[in-house]
Amino acid sequence: MDKFIIHGGAKLNGKVKVEGAKNSSLALMPATLLTCGTSVLKNTPKLKDVFTMIGLLETLGVKTAFADHTLTIKIEKLKSQDAPYEYVKKMRASVYVLGPLLAKYGKAKVSMPGGCAWGPRPINLHLEGLKKLGAEIDLEEGYIIAKSKRLIGTEINFEKKSVGATGNLLMAATLARGTTIINNSAMEPEITNLVQFLNKMGAKISGKNTQQLVIEGVDELKPARIDTISDRIEAGTLLVAGAITNGKIELSECNTTHIKSIIQKLEECGCKILVNNDIITLDASDSEIIASDVSTSEYPGFPTDMQAQWIALMSVAKGNSKVTDNIYIDRFNHVPELLRLGASIKMDKNTASISGVKKLKGAKVMSTDLRASASLVLAGLVAKGTTEVLRVYHLDRGYQFIDEKLKNLGANIKRVKGDEY
Ligand code: EPZ
Question: Residue 421: what pLDDT?
Answer without folding.
Answer: 57
